[in-house]
Write a structure and sequence with these properties.
Length: about 110
Amino acid sequence: MHGYQIKALWAKLFEIHELIRAENWVQLKRIASITDETIEEAKFEIGEYSGKITECPFEEFTDAVILGDWNGFEIGCMAQFWFDGEESDLSMECTAEFNGREIRKITIEQVHVF
């Protein structure tokens, strides 16, 4: 995976994090593939987690992103949510598909405590 693809993925994951934090489900569905069931799961998990979901610095967010195996076309990844200004163990698992330099699609698979 090339550096420019990783940077594009980090930016998109951060945007997704911020949309979930803002509970902007309509915009989230515009930029990522997510089922209504997964949205309900995210709402439940965020509501059950102690504290308040908060924004985080981009650099700290990207340091915590875990990338899976790259097959030349897609990659699995996991990113943590932040609560009360701290990285938490509540995470989102996603699959990102690329078409060359561009992210073709990001699917949010689940939101859960890691």
